[in-house]
Amino acid sequence: MRPLTTPEHKGAALPAIGVTMKRTTALIDYDNIMSVKERSITDVITNLSEMIPHLVFKIQALVPDVEEVNFRLYGGWSLRDGQSSQQCVWLLSEMGRFNRRHGSVRAKCRLARELIAQTDLSLVGTYRDGGQKMVDGMITADLIHLSNDEEISLVLVSDDDDFVPGVITGSCLRSSKSPLIVLRPKRKKAEPLNDHHYKVCRVVTAEL
């Protein structure tokens, strides 16, 4: 994955989309957008330092009235026995420093270990056999659940096509005053294959 552009190198400004919500929830497919593979806590710090301020900047450009962004980070946080994965431990130790104001926007970060619809049940085994399990399903479930809440703006941060059906479904639950937003890394392809469907469903897409 290419490094994220930092706010100091903003490039062209994103057009605001007319959403006036003061609160935003951003669902982050963490491994999909992190700049460096995490082999140490130093890598975690590098990724969070680039990711969180940059996402705040991008979201504020699209939703100018936003005052608070709740970031839910999805990944392989739980082993088969329910213990935290090493990546989870590193993130928990460093994430707190980013729970603060970035300019005029307050960021709140948490690891998604449970579904929003059932917060008292932490899912076990989201990391096993060297890879992630159930993570895409968790993101899709939370995306559709939150699509019913038009008191918030809702952002998916990923370029994974596995989320296309969930994004289309979620967009059908939202009004034109609060469209679903998809932020994704730049692709080598000229245009993602399903962008036409996103346009039909009023999904707003922008590049990181």
UniProtKB/TrEMBL annotation:
Protein origin, superkingdom: Bacteria
Annotated protein name in UniProt: NYN domain-containing protein
Species of the source: Methylorubrum rhodinum
